[in-house]
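Hi everyone,

Forwarding the result from last night's run.
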Amino acid sequence: MEYFQAFVLGIIQGITEFLPISSTAHLIVFTHFLGWENLGQKAFVDAIQLGSVFAVVWYFWADLRNIFGGATEAFQNKDWQREEWKLLVGVGVGTIPALAVGYIFKDVLPKSILVIAIASIVMAILLGLAEEFGSRKRGFETLEIKDGILVGIGQTLALIPGVSRSGSTLTTGLFLGLERSTAARFSFLLGLPTLTIATLYESIKVIKNVDSFAILAVGIISAFIFSYLAIAFLIEFLKTKSTWIFIWYRLAFGGILLVISILGK
């Protein structure tokens, strides 16, 4: 049964980590209502995010290689205006706020169903505003260091269950005038360092106490497969479609949870 649970949790993690609907919220809700709290404890579900990390690296390998290669040449030539250098610095600086805030408040952040419901609804409204008022005229080549800083600050909101790392960064990117697919790509690249560091931190704790590495492996592999599919789907989807399907989903998801929370279920 635990192998099946690990596989399902990997599916939930993989799909919801990169779609702007919050993986933490869905994992908390699913494990709570299915009674999978034992396997669904925070350390385990955070550890299977390793599959999501592998998926981002695999999908964006060419981009990552070009960014690091170009940034290295820019550093050697002191070409501080080179696109790859600005992108690398932007991602690096943008990672700091989420790591700092996450480390300071990691043990005090609320994780109730009510918090998830409110966060989901609020972020749906913000994404809707970004969709309506964002100019969506800026491509990947226009990214600046300041974009990394601002999107990184937006990423700190994802520490609240129900907000979504991809949702908060995508929303910020749209407010900054980025094209939808550009905002999604930048969202994934900027979130990679934070996701990697947080995952490795939790994985070390799981490895020390894990009863079965096979169960953990099932979760990681499942998360990898469905994370890769979710990334590919979202980037292609946003090339021609808006984010409204996710906005309406978040409103419905948050609304249902709000009712359940009020009724005390």
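The chain has a mean pLDDT of 91.

Cheers,
N.
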